[in-house]
Amino acid sequence: MNAISKDVSIELYNIMMRIRLVELKIEELYAQDEMRTPIHLCVGQEAIAAGVCANLNKADYVFSNHRGHGHYIAKGGDLRAMVAELYCKETGCSRGRGGSMHLIDTSVGFMGCSSIVGGSIPIATGAALNSLLCKDGRVSVVFFGDAASEEGVLFESMNFAALKNLPIVYICENNFYSVCSHQTARQANCDISMRPKAFDISSCKVDGSEVMEVYAESKKAIDKARSGKGPSFLECRAYRWRGHVGPGDPQKDSYREQKEWVEWMKKDPLKKFEDSLTKSDILDDACIKNIRCKIDEDISEAFEFAKNSPLPDRRELEKYLYG
Ligand SMILES: Cc1ncc(C[n+]2csc(CCOP(=O)(O)OP(=O)(O)O)c2C)c(N)n1
Ligand SMILES: [Mg+2]
Known about the structure:
By secondary structure, this protein is α/β, with parallel strands linked by helices. Helices cover 41% and strands 10% of the residues. The protein has a single domain, classed as Thiamin diphosphate (ThDP)-binding fold, Pyr/PP domains (Rossmann fold), CATH 3.40.50.
């Protein structure tokens, strides 16, 4: 069917399904009001995280933003620690102090998220400079949204990355919205992939609902960075199915046309990939059932762990406060 091996295809499917099912479980249980953190769900954007991270080594770095659950999962972050963080428990990956927008698991190179739009971009660029100077062979990848592409810090970072030939890949997840404001109401020129060219950074537009395309294009960019040929930029277009924050019913969003939403629903990245793998006899119903079953078990276990974990000790309220 294509140049990607059967094993990689199944792994990509597995990761996308894992992200989807985790997000849906968070959404389902959020109403219980035990997760005291805002949540930004990435349902509909799973193929981007899965496709990019499948090309990375464990030691490579990933930096993320406020919509980071999928990136964390795709880089291999510990699921129990992530869910416990949503419940603000001591066993959470930020010891319950950070919540959904402060996921981190440095043991697998997931170096953290930022709730400041564009905030991770210069940090990732600095990490790439460190890799260059230390010759550690790592590649840094930073995920950010279309709104972050409007921040001056992206331009400063890209200039620096190009100047120093840094091993970094900038991944813009263009879901066309910044909260409830459409890209066309904010950007004089909506071709985000054009901007890196001003710094001689190679860039391309990718259909972010097609995991194979994301995988193939990010592979080129990551291989290029690893071989010392400098930074690249991918604009991956996909749709966020849920509201900007919280579980949210997308159909009730007053700022989105029903027609637009319906069109994107037809491009469900997981369903499209599942159909293509079934057609090519890589997956069948039994395999799909097995994959789902295993993920469901992991999710139940993670939520049980989180719910049964202790809250941070009140006496440690001021611990880990800096500044
Ligand atoms: C510097 C800064 N400005 C504004 C905000 C408020 N804010 C939080 S998320 C968000 C929209 C981000 O949109 P985008 O980068 O496209 O990511 P998406 O939410 O679409 O995934 C805004 C404006 C912020 N957190 N930080
Ligand atoms: Mg956006």
